[in-house]
Amino acid sequence: MYTERNSSNNSTASCTFNVSLFLRYAGTSVVVFGLLGNFLSILVFSRKTLRSRSCSIYFLALSVSDVHVLLGYTIETLLSYGFNIQLLSYPLMCKLIIFLIYASTDISNYLLTLAAIDRCILVSNYSVRFRFCRKSTAKLTVLIVVLVFSLINSHILIGFHVDETGSCLLMNTTYSSFYTNYYDSYIDIIKTVLLPFLIIFICNIFIIIKYTRRIHFSMAKISSKRKSRRRREKDRQLTWFLLSTSILFILLSLPSEINDFIRPHLSSNFQNIYSCQILTCATMLILIHQINHASHFYVYTLTGPIFRKEFQRLICLSPKQPRKKDFLIHLQQPSLTLNVSPQYDLDIHQVNNSHIPHSSNSSAYVSF
């Protein structure tokens, strides 16, 4: 990926399409709105109303991982090609940023996969949902995913270096051949896109079938507890979050991965002739891929009334409603109302004066 892009950077001056200008405006807009949306998603999913569900833990971790994806994209692509700021010319940044891009992208995709599995188990009738669909299980699973994919992509930390020209390139010919012909062409596509795609697709089909069968049964249950209805409503909306984000993942991630698979198989002569078009295509497809990580907050806001309500409470647009328990306690507290007239106060004062001796150093105060 990076060798072709670095080598084609020299021919951008002859391109009719200004890649730098495109990234400077379109790329900056995606990053700014994406970072803002993900930070807001973190705040909303951290609220008590939503963080009680196991699926919300996955969406919370997904927002954190998407922030890292966008930060890696900003340093590796936006600053380098849009603003000509070469932070990857430093050896440590070269290794860490490319590792961050690969690891965080894998983590985001598999967190979405875990959310699909969580929803799939929840709508099933098996007892395993009581063990898997829990907050503690979700937190442990998120930690395992982060550790596993950090280890899987750790070879990047030793496989990249900065050459004499200041370009971040592959270390040697052996690793370069493995990375270009196998890892970036087959292994990365299978583990990053195809495997999550298949799992998410199967889980979504199962969820849709289950919900379709339960429509009439759910509508027939008129009398049910309010707390149970709220719990089912949260689960239903979290499922819609999953379905919408899964569709975005499939539509926005596949084109970039297909391009990464095809490009290494192009002949050297073809790449030299059409280097400008190849770079332009790769830049646009990578930006489309980043939209997947930048748009989740806006999808949640459009598809989830509960998410919108919590977001409104977060920004103080909706006043906090008193809890039912506090309202009942307030009603049960006795209230005392005193209506003291001036004549009644005078009579009391006279009666007190008839029984209590006067003293020049004592004073009585009655406050109501």
Structure at a glance:
This protein has 368 residues and is mostly helical. The protein has 17 helices and 2 strands.
- Helix % is over 70%
* Average of per-residue pLDDT values: 77
- From the coordinates shown, what is the CATH architecture? Up-down Bundle
Number of separate helices? 17
> What is the CATH topology classification name?
Rhopdopsin 7-helix transmembrane proteins
Instruction: Give, in order, the helices and strands.
Output: HHHHHHHHEEHHHHHHHHH
Overall structural domain count: 1
Fourth-level CATH superfamily: Rhodopsin 7-helix transmembrane proteins
Largest sheet: 2 strands, antiparallel
Class, according to the CATH hierarchy? Mainly Alpha
Range of strand content: under 5%
The main sheet orders its strands as 1-2
Protein name: G-protein coupled receptors family 1 profile domain-containing protein
GO molecular function: G protein-coupled receptor activity
Domain G-protein coupled receptors family 1 profile: 37-300
Transmembrane segments: 21-45, 57-75, 87-104, 140-162, 189-209, 238-258, 270-288
Considering the chains and any ligands shown, give keywords for the structure:
single chain, 368 residues, mainly alpha, Rhopdopsin 7-helix transmembrane proteins, two-stranded antiparallel sheet, 17 helices, 2 strands, 75% helix, 2% strand, globular, disordered N terminus, disordered C terminus, G protein-coupled receptor activity, GPCR_Rhodpsn_7TM, G-protein coupled receptors family 1 profile domain-containing protein, GPCR_Rhodpsn
